[in-house]
Amino acid sequence: MSNMNDASASAKGYDVKTLAKKHRISVEDATKIVAQFGSDRKACDKAARRIAV
Fold this sequence. Notes:
- This protein has 53 residues and is mainly α.
- Helices cover 57% and strands 0% of the residues.
- This is DUF3606 domain-containing protein.
């Protein structure tokens, strides 16, 4: 049974290291993306894909 007191993963801020590792970008770039888009995981992923090599 899930704990209803826990916030969903999408409601929390995107972890910078997770974003960087997922898209193979630098932690600095991931930090900038998360600062700009906050907890919007879809927007963060889209921005990370744009700069991924």
